[in-house]
Amino acid sequence: MKITNKLFNVFDRVSFTYSTKSTDADETKATYQENWNEWKKLIESVVGNFQQQKLVLDGTESWQNSGHLSNRFWSRLKFNNQLNSASCIALMIDRNRLRVYLEWHDKIADSSTNNLTAHNDWVNHLDEWIHHSNIPVERYSVWTSNQSIQDEYINLESYINNENIEKTIENELKNSRKAWVRVGVLYDKTEAVEWNNAEAVLSKCVEQLLWLYKNSVKDYIPTSDNSDTKLFLNENTTYSGISTEDNTITINDNEVSVLLNNIKVFIKQKGFMYPNHWIENFFLSLKAKPFVILAGVSGTGKTKLVKLFAEAVGATASNGQFSLVPVRPDWSDPSDLLGYKDLSGVFRPGKLTEVLVEASKPSNQHKPYFICLDEMNLARVEHYFSDLLSVLETQEWDNHRIVTTPLIHRDSLQNESDKQVYGNLHLPDNVYIVGTVNMDETTHPFSKKVLDRANTIEFNYIDLAQYPTVEGTPASEGAAVPPNSLLRSEYLQLVDVYHDYKQLTEETTELLVKINGILEQIHSHVGFRIRDAVCFYMIYNDRFALLSKEAAFDMQLLQKILPRIQGSNSSVKKALLQLMQVAQDRSLPITEYMEDASKLYLSPETLAVSKYPQSARKIAFMLRRLEEDGFTSYWLS
């Protein structure tokens, strides 16, 4: 469901006095009721995602009151056995913004089953909440019931890092027995109307606030043994259904962020730390195409990320769903991965083939299988991986499953038993291939054929000042193992999704057209394969409400476009400068920087405020290498 400008614009009035005798009374009433019903429909859709937690819609304030039109729509969510509590999760929309926040319903305060002191006590559990629910503190705001102007609201990150701010609010609560403190997410109108799936975004916010809300109603008791407000899916969790067409376990879009949070906590509690949004980016990359490259210096956790991510979704070495395959420098053809016929004509399967056979069994098709090609570029990837690269492009739908042309043809096998096991073996849709690479003098570069088919995630910017957590129980204990549908691609061609995400697809394509015009100067422009892959990444991100639109495109510019660029001439430098204009979303004196671009790469403050900061940082690095070494490449570390 989308939120349109119309819903915000209904509050764009000079006067909110409503008279049934006015000439436009009927039109005003119809407009307000239409938008009010649209708002209620959206909130009801959000509440429908929390039936297991017994969360219900306590009410939506009327669109008018005693001859006055409302200047906002306001809805309250509560546990179904806590309707008499004044604590609630509120959703509100006015002419400029939409917000989701923890609220105190003051009108029923006198009869509330919990008191204001207990409600305000959430401020003493912030650290626990932030850790437990993986809260993006830079996105949340804190404000008291006495604050009416958004500019007065305090960023949550500033609040938890500034004792003076905390003391100021603490004193305000002590001096006013009817004051309470709110916390929540505020979205500007311009941001909200861009969402293609508003209920997913709002549901994620509600989900993040559930822990605080639960602890605000101290006497909350789950109404059934299977209902809990834990954000981690537990052994009682059920997914959104089973498709009657192909018996595939499906996952509701709103469950994705919960599962990813579970994965992140699992990895963290195993003692490994990755930067913000890396897990979301890795997930989106796998979802867009089941082939990802992790590049960077040795010892940065590339292989470990694959192993831990796989373990978090139930794929381990012990159950055969995770396989680490070290690549040897002497691999020169696909037989090293797929297998070969010996002198007697018997087929000797390679490691990859063995995994494909297991993954293809009907009893295993709902399980994800991971193959990690370690040190992938010790040999020339195009030599031993060419068959896989070609087969990836033959994916098509067949009876609700994704199939490819055969990797091993039945007619090429002599032994009848080999034909039964390996004949016409294809790449199933529950197999994910991740290659780890180090770029140094002992390795081989990648061709555009490889880069076109993968997202390249770089591990070169490492913060060593991180320490493992020792808190809590590993998230895997008692956690439900998500089905393969969490990771499986849902779109193979742009036509599969264009109608549903027309605006986002066209916006993304317009950006790529602009970038392609730059790349054409150095013969590095992209085709439809990359356009579709980038659009799929952006659409999945929008569906699951994981990253901002800018952050998602930043990742794609960094991972799908920049790896193609290398060279030593002025055309490459000009192209990088023009790409920097895109990344910073501002004009640059190209002619001036052609002589000396050091102002760009020696100004981290400027890069940090870029529209696409990750890409801007990488472009600055590539410009520096070009000016200092006379040659540049994405792969230089």
UniProtKB/TrEMBL annotation:
The name on file for this protein is: AAA domain-containing protein
The domain of life is Bacteria
The ATPase dynein-related AAA domain sits at 292-452
Q: Which organism is it from?
A: Paenibacillus phytorum
